[in-house]
Amino acid sequence: MGSLVKSNISICRGCGCKLDVLQRVRGLCGDPECDRKDVPYQESKRREWLLATIRQQIPNTWNSTLPIALLPRNERLLAPLPETRYETHRSYLLKIVKEARTCYENGGEMLAEPSAPVNGISSIDAKLPVLSTACGLCRGECCYTGGNSAWLRPATIQRQQWFRLGVSDKRIVDFYLSYLPVTSFEESCVYQGEYGCTLPRTLRANICNQFLCKELGNLVSVLSENEGTSCIAAAINNNSVECMATVDALGVLEFAIP
Ligand code: SF4
Ligand code: SF4
Ligand SMILES: [Zn+2]
């Protein structure tokens, strides 16, 4: 990406102390506290650099003055789900199903499922088709957090209300396992297959159904601020633009891979 932070300033951006010639390159004195305070500055520089880079890559036929919303991008490799991860998930499912049953048998108290951040997106805007479009451009970067548990909790199992119909623990575990993809993204959620999550929405954790990342929050803000128009959504991995699209509230209008 080249240097984002070259500077000729002679005082530290963090503490204001005088800098020697080498320190002036970064504009920081080297104190870890100054480095820590500098993160937002670095982030805004990176953002400026990315926006300028994207502007250079916009196809000639597009309206290059449209605002740009940055999206993350999953670029992990697809591979057969390893046996060890399958087994880890199976053991995990057995554990949470057992916990959910114990709770049910001890009086049926409903467990609470954790909720997820929505980054300022209203419940009405959360239904905008462009959000799933954006998640498609991103290819599910947030799903790496699912790991071998897929965020499933005893409360997720209890919500299904299968115990009262006499469904056995093994049947529930096998039912979940039947949705595991043969090929999934490495170092991501066990259910993240090539075309997205392979678990039906009703079987997923509440967190998975609710979560909206801060980039989606920004996309909604950009579209709201430019009412009646569209914006460019650019999916970025490791400072490289993997794909971009002009989008409006209903989804993709034009698509390009730079
Ligand atoms: S919520 Fe954000 S990180 Fe997750 S898939 Fe959608 S755009 Fe990507
Ligand atoms: S269960 Fe689905 S939505 Fe949830 S983290 Fe895994 S792949 Fe993503
Ligand atoms: Zn300093």
Describe this protein with a few key phrases.
single chain, about 260 residues, 4-stranded mixed β-sheet, 8 strands, binds iron/sulfur cluster, binds zinc ion
Low-confidence stretches: 1-5
User: How much β-strand is present in the residues?
Assistant: 5-15%
Q: Tally of extended strands?
A: 8
Mean pLDDT: 93
Strand order of the largest sheet: 1-6-7-8
Largest sheet: 4 strands, mixed
Cα shape: globular
Q: If helices are DSSP runs of H or I spanning 4 or more residues, what is the number of helices?
A: 9
Termini gap? 16 Å
Please write the string of helix (H) and strand (E) elements. HHHEEHHHHEEEHHEEE
**Which ions and ligands are bound to the chains?**
iron/sulfur cluster, zinc ion
Helix content: 25-40%
Global Rg: 23 Å
Which secondary-structure class do the elements indicate? alpha+beta
Would you spell out the secondary-structure blueprint of this structure?
Layout: H1 21-26, H2 32-37, H3 39-57, E1 68-71, E2 78-80, H4 83-105, H5 129-138, H6 154-159, H7 169-177, E3 183-185, E4 192-193, E5 196-197, H8 206-210, H9 214-225, E6 231-237, E7 240-248, E8 251-256
Parallel strand pairs: 1-6
Antiparallel strand pairs: 2-3, 4-5, 6-7, 7-8
The site of one iron/sulfur cluster (SF4) has 12 residues, from loops.
Describe what is shown at a glance.
With 258 residues, this protein is of the alpha+beta class. Helix content is 37%, strand content 14%. The protein has 9 helices and 8 strands.
